Amino acid sequence: MIIKKKKFLYLLILITIILVTGCWENVDLTEIGLAVAVGLDKVDEEIEVTVQLVKPNVIKAKDQGSDEESYWTFSKTGPTIFSAVRDLLLTINKKVFFRHVEIIVIDEELAKEGIIASLDFFERDQETNRKSKLLIAKGIKAKKVLEASSDLDNIPAMHLSDTLENSKHHGKVVNNTLFELLQCMSSKGFSPGIGVIRKVRQDVKDKLNIKDLEIGGTAIFWKDKLVGWLSPNQTKGYLFAIDKIESGIINLPNPVESKGKVALEITYAKAKREIIFKNNKPVFKIEVKVDGRLAEQQGSGDLTKAEMVKLIEKKAAINVENRIKEIIKLAQKEFKSDIFGFSNIMHKKHLSYWKGVEDDWTKLFCQTEFEVNAKWQIKNSALIKEPVKAR
Amino acid sequence: MINKLTRILKLLKYKNENDKKLKEEDNDQRQIPQSMAALRKALERTFYDCNDYILREIDIGDTKEQKLLITYLDGLVDKKIINDNILKPLMIELDKIDYKDSKNKKISFDKIKNKLLIVTALTEINTYKKLVDAVLAGDTVIYLPGNKRALKLSARGGNVRTVEEPTTEAVIRGPREGFTETIRTNTSLLRRKIKSPKLKFENYVLGEKTQTDVAICYIKDLANEDIINTVRKRLRKIKTDAILESGYLEEFIEDAPFSIFATVSNSEKPDIVAAKVLEGRVAILCDGTPFVLTVPHLFIETLSSADDYYSRSIYSTFVRLVRFSALIITTTLPAIYVAMVSFHQDIIPFKLLLTVSASRQGVPLSAFSETFIMLVAFEFMREAGVRMPSRFGQAVSIVGALVLGQSAVAAGIASDPIVMIVALTAVTAFVVQPLREAIPIIRFINLIAANVMGLFWMSLVLFMFIIHLVSLRSFGVPFLAPFAPFYKSDLKDSLIRFPLWAMWRRPRGLENQSRKDNEFRMKKDIKSKED
């Protein structure tokens, strides 16, 4: 007993020692250049790496009313990312530190060729941040995105990162970290989506501001190659299906007064994906259970009556079902990519069947039937029951 | 090298002992001479050139045949007692009563002892050495020629400090009295708290030259006999010239002399010592200092204060946790800062990193040198604060606050965070007073380790300290009890404090095997009687 305890203690000490080992060298904070965002572009068969560095002393000086920009972007081109990163040091006086990279922006063209090649560096190197978020730049160079200034935040990368984080309020963009993405991609047949950043004002040519950009929508992949896009609204349906939606708004016509609209806020959503077999053929089943509340009402009528609630619940459920079905159609017909991760479920639950279809998964996915079921439950109508009647 | 040193020390020790033996032989057993002249001559030789030495011959009775010798050291005695209770009866009131022996009309030794002297503490002594020791200790000696013995009268007095509130261990609630420099006052303070004949004081006289009174104090049948014996043994082993303060004793009797952690605790407050004695500890009182030692000393005592037992238990628990976190912060915070800034920039939250980085820009020193310099500066200030006369206090605080804090930042020598970190480290260091001697050392070792290899070495160093703590013993009791070894019932009075009535068992680490009343505290169930 005592010996066992001792061994356990030694083990504990050993584990702790291994876990806490950090970086070897003693580098002072003032000797590193903090990179907060990295942009990857394709330029003449080479990769252009753009980094956004922070100038901490300028941020401090801004409190005292300095007008200097507190970030600095710089690019270098090279055949590999690592060589380009090293070449940055030909110009930058500090060691570029990637541990606090908040966001990685990948150019559309590079994504079409496959993103694993570009992400390998960020996975392999010990000085990168696996929690950094990913964005695909649609119709704009990643370099331009990084150069865009922000009026709201001293650091544009933080602005982008926080905006992407907002997806939990509207559900219109996929928010994936590097780690999550690599984890999904490494499983066979599963091709997850990545959030999209695009330009909304085409007239601005020279210096961009983040208000000319918008984060919304999804870039769809087959394996690691970009094959298509989902609009921000379609993304909502996609997020419903993969159980990633946290909140968002669904608009429905007012059942009492058809001119008006009703907004429902999602407060809780749970999606269950499973595979059932009918006549020895797999059927993909998506069951969504949503809790929501009446968040806005145009037009009159007491919608909190039981039969009204039932009616709205039913309509909302159909709305969700339709959204999901739309995505399924796109995935099967247009993208030909398993964006829901049914391959994972097949692998885990039906291993023997999986082994037979493993190599032809995409083909099977495109032909398989889907069953979509949605259930809504309206929990409350916020603070009031019906709108004020103007008399 | 250490081996060599210890060998030399041992040799020196034996040499001293041999020398002393030679001297003691002729002094120790010498009888008190029977004739007045001989004794006078001997005493005058012993106290040659001591101008505080008083020796007086007086005539007693109406004949001039019989003389009496009275001797003491001026300043150590209460002159009023000597005048009123010793000289007056011998010189004046002797005439009023029938004192004469019927035969030779001389007054006898016994009559003086039993009838004449109005002094309570009175003992006979029979060797010359004892006579000299009694005089040196502040007693008065009376000698009647023709006898082989003399009388030792306790009439000690002179200027001593009265019982005052101690300045070192301040409490919000609790007794205000503190020990003084006089051992007799100190024992009385303890006796007043524990009115039991089982409270024992054993006397020792230590120090060849100082002849310091040392007393060990314990409660019979409650204190572990092994611990008492260890204390006795270690006290007897002491051979030294002088014991000026209990710190001298501490160095002689402690378990780990080279450890940075003290294994003997000290206190200036009778209530703390009484509480510890009541738990089964042994107190060692030393004449000439208000600091009383208690052994065994455990780590957990450093985190507790007398206040804890006088305030509500929930609050005490909170305060103890505060003290513990202060201990962690004061020993590790500068090291963690250096490790994070120099090695693990990735674990600093991004926004904090920006702030730290911004304030570090333009500072010419590395994080380590900056921290080190500021910490050393603080140590200088602390030491200056203790040593300097209080009139300079203002000057030092201005220099400390303005020059070392604000100006260092304004001049770009130090960064903002480091001023805050050093300030926090300094403040928290004062929270855990009993460990004040160990804390700076742990802090600096941690700091250096953090600069060499970041958190990795820092945690190694912390492990080393913990291993050292676990291996420490204080008079046979493991230093880290009740955590290692684990005593479940003792945890009630560790980082948390249960209500007094819930701590019904005496501390297990100090337990006396033969003791029956280990359950010593509880709320009596008197309900049945009321019914």
Helix content of chain A: 25-40%
The number of domains of chain A: 2
Mind summarizing the main beta sheet of chain A? 9 strands, mixed
Main β-sheet, spatial strand arrangement of chain B: 1-2-4-5-3
Oligomer description: heterodimer
N-to-C order of helices and strands of chain A: HEEHEHEEHHEHHHHEEEHEEEHHHHE
Number of strands of chain A: 13
What overall geometry of chain B do the principal axes of the alpha carbons give? elongated
Largest interface: A-B, 28 and 29 residues
What proportion strand of chain B? 5-15%
Main features:
heterodimer, A: 391 residues, alpha/beta, GMP Synthetase, Chain A, domain 3, 2 domains, nine-stranded mixed β-sheet, four-stranded mixed β-sheet, 14 helices, 36% helix, 30% strand, B: 531 residues, alpha+beta, 4 domains, five-stranded antiparallel β-sheet, 17 helices, 46% helix, 11% strand
Written account of the structure:
- The complex is a heterodimer of chains A (391) and B (531).
- Chain A is built from 14 helices and 13 strands.
- With 391 residues, chain A is an alpha/beta fold.
- Chain A folds into two domains: 202 residues, no CATH class; 161 residues, GMP Synthetase, Chain A, domain 3, CATH 3.30.300.
- In chain A, the strands form two sheets. In chain A, strands 1, 2, 3, 4, 5, 6, 7, 8 and 9 form a nine-stranded mixed sheet that branches. A four-stranded mixed sheet of chain A has the order 10-11-12-13, with helices on both faces.
- In chain A, β10 and β11 form a beta hairpin.
- In chain A, α10 crosses α11 and α12 packs across α13.
- Chain A is globular.
- With 531 residues, chain B is an alpha+beta fold.
- Chain B has four domains: 30 residues; 123 residues, no CATH class; 115 residues, no CATH class; 125 residues, no CATH class.
- In chain B, the strands form three sheets. Chain B has a five-stranded antiparallel sheet with strand order 1-2-4-5-3, covered by helices on one side. In chain B, strands 6-7-9-10-8 form a five-stranded antiparallel sheet, sandwiched between helices.
- In chain B, β6 and β7 form a beta hairpin.
- In chain B, α11 runs antiparallel to α15, α11 crosses α16 and α13 runs antiparallel to α14.
- The longest helix of chain B has 33 residues.
- At the A-B interface, α1, β1 and α2 of A face α11, α12 and α16 of B.
